[in-house]
Specification:
Helix content: over 70%
Oligomer: single chain
Strand content: under 5%
Shape: globular
Low-confidence stretches: none
Number of strands: 0
Radius of gyration: 17 Å
Distance between the termini: 37 Å
Largest sheet: none
Order of helices and strands: HHHHHHHHH
Number of helices: 9
Mean pLDDT: 93
Length: 233
Protein backbone atom coordinates (compact mmCIF):
# COMPACT_ATOMS: atom_id res chain seq x y z
CA UNK A 1 0.00 0.00 0.00
CA UNK A 2 2.84 2.42 0.76
CA UNK A 3 4.18 2.02 -2.78
CA UNK A 4 0.84 3.05 -4.27
CA UNK A 5 0.41 5.91 -1.80
CA UNK A 6 3.89 7.18 -2.66
CA UNK A 7 3.02 7.07 -6.36
CA UNK A 8 -0.17 9.03 -5.70
CA UNK A 9 1.67 11.62 -3.57
CA UNK A 10 4.32 11.96 -6.27
CA UNK A 11 1.75 12.54 -9.02
CA UNK A 12 -0.04 15.14 -6.90
CA UNK A 13 3.25 16.90 -6.24
CA UNK A 14 4.56 16.96 -9.80
CA UNK A 15 1.23 18.13 -11.25
CA UNK A 16 0.80 20.95 -8.73
CA UNK A 17 2.42 23.60 -11.01
CA UNK A 18 -0.36 23.05 -13.55
CA UNK A 19 -3.02 24.34 -11.17
CA UNK A 20 -0.96 26.70 -9.02
CA UNK A 21 1.10 28.52 -11.65
CA UNK A 22 4.88 28.83 -12.13
CA UNK A 23 7.21 30.09 -9.42
CA UNK A 24 10.73 31.49 -9.76
CA UNK A 25 11.15 33.30 -6.46
CA UNK A 26 9.22 35.57 -4.14
CA UNK A 27 7.97 38.84 -5.60
CA UNK A 28 9.22 42.15 -4.20
CA UNK A 29 5.93 43.21 -2.67
CA UNK A 30 5.30 40.09 -0.61
CA UNK A 31 7.07 41.47 2.47
CA UNK A 32 6.77 44.79 4.34
CA UNK A 33 10.32 45.69 3.27
CA UNK A 34 10.40 45.01 -0.46
CA UNK A 35 12.98 42.44 -1.50
CA UNK A 36 13.84 43.26 -5.11
CA UNK A 37 16.22 40.64 -6.46
CA UNK A 38 17.52 39.47 -3.06
CA UNK A 39 21.18 38.47 -3.46
CA UNK A 40 20.69 35.00 -1.96
CA UNK A 41 18.10 34.05 -4.57
CA UNK A 42 19.55 31.97 -7.44
CA UNK A 43 19.43 33.08 -11.06
CA UNK A 44 16.18 32.18 -12.77
CA UNK A 45 17.63 29.41 -14.92
CA UNK A 46 18.41 27.37 -11.78
CA UNK A 47 14.72 26.60 -11.23
CA UNK A 48 14.82 24.38 -14.33
CA UNK A 49 16.21 21.68 -12.04
CA UNK A 50 12.61 21.00 -11.06
CA UNK A 51 12.06 19.35 -14.43
CA UNK A 52 14.72 16.76 -13.61
CA UNK A 53 13.44 16.35 -10.05
CA UNK A 54 9.86 15.78 -11.19
CA UNK A 55 10.79 13.25 -13.87
CA UNK A 56 13.15 11.32 -11.60
CA UNK A 57 10.61 11.18 -8.76
CA UNK A 58 7.93 9.86 -11.12
CA UNK A 59 10.29 7.20 -12.49
CA UNK A 60 11.23 6.23 -8.93
CA UNK A 61 7.60 5.95 -7.83
CA UNK A 62 6.69 3.88 -10.89
CA UNK A 63 9.64 1.56 -10.36
CA UNK A 64 8.70 1.24 -6.70
CA UNK A 65 5.20 0.09 -7.62
CA UNK A 66 6.50 -2.28 -10.29
CA UNK A 67 9.48 -3.87 -8.53
CA UNK A 68 9.68 -2.75 -4.89
CA UNK A 69 6.11 -2.90 -3.60
CA UNK A 70 6.99 -5.03 -0.57
CA UNK A 71 10.57 -3.95 -0.04
CA UNK A 72 11.07 -3.04 3.62
CA UNK A 73 14.04 -0.77 2.85
CA UNK A 74 11.95 1.23 0.39
CA UNK A 75 9.07 1.39 2.87
CA UNK A 76 11.31 3.09 5.42
CA UNK A 77 11.91 5.86 2.89
CA UNK A 78 8.31 6.14 1.70
CA UNK A 79 6.83 7.48 4.94
CA UNK A 80 8.99 10.62 5.25
CA UNK A 81 9.03 11.08 1.47
CA UNK A 82 5.22 11.02 1.32
CA UNK A 83 5.11 13.54 4.16
CA UNK A 84 7.46 15.87 2.29
CA UNK A 85 5.54 15.56 -0.98
CA UNK A 86 2.20 16.11 0.77
CA UNK A 87 3.51 19.29 2.39
CA UNK A 88 5.01 20.38 -0.93
CA UNK A 89 1.92 19.88 -3.07
CA UNK A 90 0.22 23.15 -2.01
CA UNK A 91 3.53 24.98 -1.53
CA UNK A 92 3.46 26.94 -4.80
CA UNK A 93 0.11 28.48 -3.91
CA UNK A 94 1.30 29.24 -0.39
CA UNK A 95 4.50 30.84 -1.71
CA UNK A 96 2.48 33.24 -3.83
CA UNK A 97 0.46 34.44 -0.84
CA UNK A 98 2.62 34.25 2.28
CA UNK A 99 6.40 34.31 2.69
CA UNK A 100 6.02 33.34 6.35
CA UNK A 101 4.02 30.17 5.72
CA UNK A 102 6.05 29.35 2.63
CA UNK A 103 9.20 29.41 4.77
CA UNK A 104 7.62 27.20 7.44
CA UNK A 105 6.40 24.72 4.85
CA UNK A 106 9.64 24.52 2.90
CA UNK A 107 11.61 23.84 6.06
CA UNK A 108 9.20 21.02 6.89
CA UNK A 109 9.62 19.74 3.33
CA UNK A 110 13.39 19.86 3.69
CA UNK A 111 13.48 18.08 7.05
CA UNK A 112 11.24 15.24 5.93
CA UNK A 113 13.13 14.93 2.62
CA UNK A 114 16.43 14.71 4.52
CA UNK A 115 14.87 12.07 6.78
CA UNK A 116 13.95 10.09 3.66
CA UNK A 117 17.43 10.50 2.19
CA UNK A 118 19.14 9.32 5.36
CA UNK A 119 17.05 6.14 5.21
CA UNK A 120 17.49 5.53 1.47
CA UNK A 121 19.46 2.36 0.67
CA UNK A 122 22.61 2.96 -1.36
CA UNK A 123 21.99 -0.24 -3.32
CA UNK A 124 19.17 1.49 -5.21
CA UNK A 125 20.84 4.85 -5.65
CA UNK A 126 19.60 5.43 -9.18
CA UNK A 127 16.04 4.41 -8.41
CA UNK A 128 15.52 5.89 -4.94
CA UNK A 129 18.43 7.65 -3.22
CA UNK A 130 19.22 9.62 -6.38
CA UNK A 131 15.85 11.31 -6.93
CA UNK A 132 15.30 11.80 -3.22
CA UNK A 133 18.78 13.29 -2.91
CA UNK A 134 18.31 15.72 -5.79
CA UNK A 135 14.97 16.80 -4.33
CA UNK A 136 16.37 17.19 -0.81
CA UNK A 137 19.43 19.07 -2.05
CA UNK A 138 17.42 21.71 -3.83
CA UNK A 139 15.18 22.04 -0.77
CA UNK A 140 18.22 22.66 1.43
CA UNK A 141 19.26 25.59 -0.72
CA UNK A 142 15.70 26.86 -1.13
CA UNK A 143 15.01 26.71 2.61
CA UNK A 144 17.85 29.10 3.40
CA UNK A 145 16.80 31.38 0.54
CA UNK A 146 13.28 31.55 1.95
CA UNK A 147 14.56 32.17 5.47
CA UNK A 148 16.88 34.98 4.34
CA UNK A 149 14.11 36.68 2.34
CA UNK A 150 11.71 36.35 5.28
CA UNK A 151 14.15 37.83 7.79
CA UNK A 152 15.24 40.72 5.60
CA UNK A 153 11.71 41.35 4.36
CA UNK A 154 10.36 41.71 7.87
CA UNK A 155 13.32 43.72 9.16
CA UNK A 156 14.60 41.00 11.46
CA UNK A 157 18.32 41.42 11.96
CA UNK A 158 20.54 42.72 9.15
CA UNK A 159 19.70 43.60 5.54
CA UNK A 160 19.31 41.19 2.63
CA UNK A 161 22.99 41.43 1.65
CA UNK A 162 24.15 40.37 5.12
CA UNK A 163 21.52 37.64 5.26
CA UNK A 164 22.99 36.29 2.02
CA UNK A 165 26.42 36.23 3.65
CA UNK A 166 24.87 34.26 6.53
CA UNK A 167 22.63 32.01 4.48
CA UNK A 168 25.18 30.77 1.93
CA UNK A 169 27.64 29.25 4.43
CA UNK A 170 24.75 28.01 6.58
CA UNK A 171 23.24 26.10 3.66
CA UNK A 172 26.68 24.80 2.72
CA UNK A 173 27.31 23.61 6.29
CA UNK A 174 24.07 21.63 6.36
CA UNK A 175 24.91 20.21 2.94
CA UNK A 176 28.40 19.17 4.03
CA UNK A 177 26.96 17.29 7.02
CA UNK A 178 24.37 15.55 4.85
CA UNK A 179 26.88 14.63 2.15
CA UNK A 180 29.31 13.23 4.68
CA UNK A 181 26.57 11.04 6.18
CA UNK A 182 24.91 9.93 2.94
CA UNK A 183 27.61 10.16 0.24
CA UNK A 184 24.80 11.35 -2.03
CA UNK A 185 26.18 12.77 -5.25
CA UNK A 186 22.68 13.80 -6.35
CA UNK A 187 22.15 15.79 -3.16
CA UNK A 188 25.51 17.54 -3.49
CA UNK A 189 24.85 18.28 -7.16
CA UNK A 190 21.59 20.06 -6.40
CA UNK A 191 23.16 22.27 -3.72
CA UNK A 192 26.19 23.02 -5.91
CA UNK A 193 23.83 23.90 -8.78
CA UNK A 194 22.01 26.35 -6.51
CA UNK A 195 25.21 27.92 -5.15
CA UNK A 196 26.62 28.47 -8.62
CA UNK A 197 23.32 30.06 -9.66
CA UNK A 198 23.58 32.43 -6.68
CA UNK A 199 27.09 33.39 -7.83
CA UNK A 200 25.87 33.95 -11.40
CA UNK A 201 22.99 36.10 -10.14
CA UNK A 202 25.41 38.41 -8.28
CA UNK A 203 28.16 38.76 -10.86
CA UNK A 204 29.05 42.39 -11.39
CA UNK A 205 27.08 43.52 -8.34
CA UNK A 206 28.34 41.69 -5.25
CA UNK A 207 31.81 40.15 -5.68
CA UNK A 208 31.96 39.01 -2.05
CA UNK A 209 28.80 36.95 -2.45
CA UNK A 210 30.06 35.59 -5.78
CA UNK A 211 33.31 34.46 -4.18
CA UNK A 212 31.56 33.00 -1.15
CA UNK A 213 29.06 31.05 -3.26
CA UNK A 214 31.74 29.69 -5.59
CA UNK A 215 33.94 28.72 -2.63
CA UNK A 216 31.05 26.94 -0.91
CA UNK A 217 30.21 25.10 -4.13
CA UNK A 218 33.83 24.02 -4.63
CA UNK A 219 34.16 22.82 -1.03
CA UNK A 220 30.94 20.84 -1.24
CA UNK A 221 31.89 19.28 -4.58
CA UNK A 222 35.30 18.26 -3.23
CA UNK A 223 33.75 16.79 -0.09
CA UNK A 224 31.24 14.80 -2.12
CA UNK A 225 34.05 13.44 -4.31
CA UNK A 226 36.15 12.39 -1.31
CA UNK A 227 33.19 10.85 0.52
CA UNK A 228 31.98 8.94 -2.53
CA UNK A 229 35.46 7.67 -3.22
CA UNK A 230 35.74 6.32 0.33
CA UNK A 231 32.38 4.58 0.09
CA UNK A 232 33.34 2.92 -3.18
CA UNK A 233 36.68 1.61 -1.89
Amino acid sequence: MRAYLTAFATLAFVTSPFWSGPFSGFSAGQTPIEQTNPPIQPAGYAFSIWGVIYIWLVVSAAYGVWAKREDAAWDRVRVPLMASLAIGTPWLIIAQTSVIWATVFIWLMQLTALWALLKAPRADAGWLAGPVGLYAGWLTAASFVALAVLMAGYGIGPDSYTWALIGIPSAATVALIVVWNTASLAYASAVVWALIAVAVKNMGDAPTIVGLAFAAAALLAATAFVRLRRVMQ
